Structures
1.
Amino acid sequence: MTLGAPAYVTAFLSALALAWVLTPLMLRLALRLSVLDEPGERKAQQQAVPYLGGVAIVLAFAATVLVAGLLLGPEDGVPALAAVLGAGVVLSIMGLVDDLRGLGPSLRIAVEVVAGVVIYATEPDISLPGPPLVGIVVTVLWVVLVTNAFNLLDNMDGLSAGVAAIAGLAFCVISAVNGQFLVAALSAAIAGCATGFLRHNFHPAKIYMGDAGSLFLGFLLAAVAVRLQLESAPAAVSLFVPVLVLGVALFDTTLVTVNRLRHGRSPLLGGRDHVSHRLVWVGIPVPVAVGLIYGLALCLGFLGFLLARLDLVSGLLLVGFVLTVGVGVLALLSAVPVYATSRRRQAMLRVVRTHEPEPPAGAGSGVEAAEPLEGLS
């Protein structure tokens, strides 16, 4: 089967249009049913925000895929795609239940592991050194990692959906150039439904995707990465292409995991210590912080495309350069004192108190106390 640019554009625009229309409908339904994300200690919003944006994303993507499947026919790999879509829908339902009632991490991980096994079972071209068990384990770990990385990345208005859209477009271009037409169309549909949802998710967000949307997008991108076959690139280099394309989410997960462990916190608990929160903490406005992360996602997507076309030595040099810069940025962001127990933060607060001006003479109970800086809560 051969597809061209018109098919990719059609898949992108179809998913975008459906998400664009369905998102406000889900917003009204969430308000009617009181399916809301209430403000809390670890949340930035000051008022309740409707959930169910993830349902719009799932419906938009599923409708696009089902129509494409009817047009292409079962001989074009649609049954395997249907199995992947089914696993994604199960993850989305689990995420919605978690949004509404809360689920333990053990159950979530178990369902994600099963979804990873589905990916392995429906992709016969997975080949890694060693026995088949190695391929199963690596595939499952990859699916669980990327799925949760995009779930963790959903921590600021427009962030996870925007990065998912950029990654989807990058995968679309890379797979199309390498002759994987079905993977390219699937990636275009992922980018389309994420972009259509963004209309109501930019800061200040009118609706959230919730775990129902972030788990779904993360799982689909993990599945696309597994199906990406770069026959012209050296094997040692091609493995890093999806890592670069999904680098923003993977870097954010690494940052919060390392720093939570350093400060004696559980990596499984939420917090305002992600890349976006650290940028806001140093004074960058929310839209600018999200825009900077979009720019980083675009750069990594381009580097992923470039890496897929390099020889072994050039590719490894590029990977080494990116990893070196990544370690440096991680160290720099880790220095931002976002935790209340941080010694650097306590020292900064002592300096602020030392240089605070004295209250005016006669000032008493009528003088209001200064409110804490955003990001210090």
2.
Amino acid sequence: MHQFNEHHAAFDGFSPFYFQVIGPRLRNREVDRKAAVKKTLWTLSLTPLLALICIFLSPFDWQTEVIGIWASTLFFIPLYVAYTIIYTQRSISTVTKQSIIGGFCRFKKWTYLHDKRLEKSAHNSHGLMNFVDLGFAPKYNSATIEGHVTGKINGSYFQFFRATFSRAEETVYEFCPWKYRFKGQFVSILFPQKFQAQTVVIPDKGLFNWKKRRGMKRVRLVDPVFEKMFEVYGTDQVEARYLLAPDFMQRLVDLEHAFKGKSIRFGFTENQLLIAIETRLKLGVGSMFKQLDDPKRTQNVLDALSAIYDVVDGVTTKQERILVNAKSTAA
């Protein structure tokens, strides 16, 4: 029997639970996965025919404007491929995500909420505006929430979900990336006690650094490695340095890696820790060209959830200060 790397003590005993509950569900859907992949490959086999159609129907003169013909063909073919993969595998991808993430929720007694598209009247739900107000996400006209999980970790309420913000008035399809304003993973953790001040951490982008907010001053980090990686602003220099010890900063970087993301930004405000990570990863899905019960598919989710636990531990448990060197995963 495969033994998962459970990382955190909170997931002790997960391996036997997986083989009793989650694994059988995934194997029962293997026939559906193979059918979806077969449909995908058959549809993709029509790509050469589509390319010829694009060439013959192109508005350009094929004798004199060869570049225009090939440009239009190269524009439509990737869209066709993306559309094919997404829409021939959408159903089995959704079931896989529900089986894996739902299984974790059953193991931890959390709540798994179904995906939803938010109407304008619901834009203040899920705490999305808190992320926008801190500058972690852009203003948007529509949004989609996926993989929404809520529960408690060591007495602190938390939620995480994947959100796609769009410029369009209505949520756009997956193959229209030019409509997106932000796509990523969001985590909010509600602690019993309030923080005394507000602290915001964003990636250091050199000349394109974030504009300082009213009442917030630049905070210099103790460790030079993280000082190069991040820009920190806060209303209380002492609390900011206390919260952002190197050990805790490393936990946030590890969380970013677990979600296979980039440009993590996070902040402490009131009694919340808000985290936003830019990523295209759909937690719990992975490639449909591999078996559903491939252990790596579930291990990726376990790594991400364990990283969230580590972050909560970093706030609630006093940690010894560590030095981060060039060989650290944060470097």
3.
Amino acid sequence: MFAQACGRRGTAPLGRTAAGEVEGLDIDAYRFCVIGPGRLGSTLLAGLLEAGLTVAAVGVHADDDTDLGMIPRHVRVADAALEADAWWLTVPDDEIHTVAARLAASLPATRRGGRAPLAVHSSGLGSIHLLRPLFEQGVRALCLHPLQTFTGEPRAELLRDVPCAVTAHEEQDLQLGEELARRLGLRPFRLADDKKTLYHLSAVIGSNLLVALESEAKRLMDEATGDEDGLAHLTPLLNTALKNLLSSGDPARALTGPVARGDVGTVRAHLRLLDRESPRLARTYRALSLEALTLAAPRLDDEQVRSLKGLLAEGAAPHAAVDGGREAAGGAQ
């Protein structure tokens, strides 16, 4: 049944009221419980309250964390099934299915208001299938993933204008997820369940691994200058590069530097130093420079492309050599 629902995603007929409104989109009717009040969960909790939605409880794992005197009440996961009819799971990915199963086992026999309950998880990578135990009990299943990192004090404004991936089985559930996201100030967009790994990989490369790359840049600058202000020295360059990329919307147009200029001598000097001092970073430099060459190839002459490709492929793993020639770069030959 679960797989069948996934297969017909977006094709379910929508029920309508006598006034012509789509049924099942009344977010205000639900009583929410956020399970896992970490950084993301606490921010979503603040967003729900700011949006004027009803938050009946906060779900916690340990009995020691329960507090019925708090507002909202802090209750065990099993009790959360009775306190609310919309559960937002912000627990680690490896715990989502387990928590969903505990909730499913504790669902009351009679539904509040006669409507189907709602379950949401916010894993960027995890499938909607993680909510299977609840879906099989008639609970509507959604995944809403705000494409942002959350640090510091949880505040509702941190959600404002943040893109949010919405994944669901049915068209009416996608609409429900989009409406919920908008109520929290997020900018929803639809994401197919089978594309989540690709989506999450994009986010990790564009954010987390960028930080790791800048850590290497800082280390090199610190070594060159003899101080520890490498990141400060690089800040104007980083700001301008990111501004150019985001304002143009085209990585090829924003690309600058030796590969973009076809400067073979500079690239050779970099590689001589890296091959001697940091072979691991040399491999990273080659791989990223080959990607840069793919972007720059249309504006370089044939000899520049051939020279750079040959230089960058030296010492690189076979699969890193522009994917065996990478037509985008090779096309300029």
